[in-house]
Amino acid sequence: MKRPVHGGDVYAAARELKRDVRQLLDFSASINPLGPSAAAWRAIKEGSELLSHYPDPACRDLRQALATFWDRSPEEFLIGNGSTELIHLLPEALQIRHLLVIGPTFSEYAAAMARVGGQISSIMARRDDGYRPPLEQIMNDLGKFRNTRNSRPPVDAVMLCNPNSPTGQVCDADMVRKWARRAARLGQWCLVDETFAEYCEEVSILPEDLPAQTLVLRSFTKFYGLPGLRVGYAVGNPKVMKRLGAHQPPWSVNMLAQRAAQLALEDKRHSRRSLRFMEQERSRCVQGLMRLPGCSTFPSAANFLLLELPARLKAMRVVSALRRQGILVRDCSQVPGLNDRSIRLAIRSRADNDRLLSSLSEIIGKSRT
Ligand SMILES: Cc1ncc(COP(=O)(O)O)c(C=O)c1O
Predict the structure, then answer these.
(1) Is the distance from the beta carbon of residue 318 to the nearest atom of ligand 1 less than 6 Å?
(2) What are the DSSP calls for 3-30, one per residue?
(3) End of a domain among 266, 282, 299?
(4) I need a labelling partner for 175 at 20 to 30 A (CA). Which of 12, 75, 191, 229 fits?
(5) How far is the CA of 4 from the centre of ligand 1 (A)?
């Protein structure tokens, strides 16, 4: 099986460019530019004694903290080694044989299905529509996907990434709930990846009771700025969480990760600062990108922007030129449903973003001469 290519492999880039990782500017993974909460950092730096025992296999304190945060019961939570581990548990644990996704979207859903020999179908949001997910149309068509065609099993689960990566588009919470209820009536699982939803909590379906057969995924990677610790969580019916957990290897989340995630979650001040910063910096970056001749961006509710380069300028060329300068961005030209001029850019600090804008301006300028 071919592994999907993701952003964030700074180690490969450092080797290739013969530079130290710290000399790279990584816009290819979308991580909170303010970094993690200071309390989480401290727990990591001072937490070495946590490594002298096995980690809590049930992640009790973190699940309790999440239960308090979301006003739910701890049994509704399962912690994973990043949300990626949880995505990969889903097909086997829930016996999903055919998953419907709304593209263009995150490639790991298809990879998880491929691992178990499952089928995947996609409905693509259209460029002309600003990549707005066609949720109403899909809702009307959900029934059709139950029918078996060409000896493929009927669709038994649907996945929505909200906000969606790499387009940044969102669906509103009421619409997602309506969609989830419809899927449940048809006997389909509704899986909602809210890995970037801390940036726009109003789209989350977590504040209310979840419709039957609905499961939500979250992460401490992006907003909480802890990509290297590997912590994510699933929320859903306690019986379903048990089923999912039974497929997980023991101790998959280490104790530093559990402790730091709990402190990060509880640091509401840092969360508010992070949100405020992102709102301002994202709109400043949009303005900067719109000034680049021939470029367009799409409205984003997350901490990244999808950039479309001018006609005839291929993403691959720009990605390589930036890489030579030690600037990493995510080439999205191979993402099904996007064109070969598509790049995803994380929003970083003001100074880093200015550096990227100036390099992009230079590369685009040169391509026109
Ligand atoms: C949409 C989406 N979901 C899930 C993940 C996985 O995140 P993690 O495993 O770090 O929690 C990513 C990572 O890029 C993502 O973009």
Answers:
(1) no
(2) PPP-S--HHHHHHHHT--GGG-EE-SS-
(3) 266
(4) 75
(5) 12
What average pLDDT is seen over the chain? 95
**Rounded distance between C-alpha atoms, residue 202 and residue 282, angstroms:** 18
Q: How many domains does the chain have?
A: 2
State in Å: Cα 336 to ligand 1 middle.
18
Residues of the chain with pLDDT under 50: none
Q: Give yes or no: residues 204 and 289 share one domain.
A: no
Asked, as a colleague might, if the bond just before 336 is cis with ω within 30 of 0, I would say no
For residue 22, what are the domain limits?
Answer: 10-30+269-367
pLDDT at 138: 85
- Calculate how far, in angstroms, residue 111's C-alpha sits from the geometric centre of ligand 1: 13
Lookup result for tokens 């939803």? 197
Are residues 261 and 275 part of one domain? no
Amino acid 28: pLDDT: 96
**What is the pLDDT, as a whole number, of residue 367?**
87
Q: For residue 287, what is the domain's CATH number?
A: 3.90.1150.10
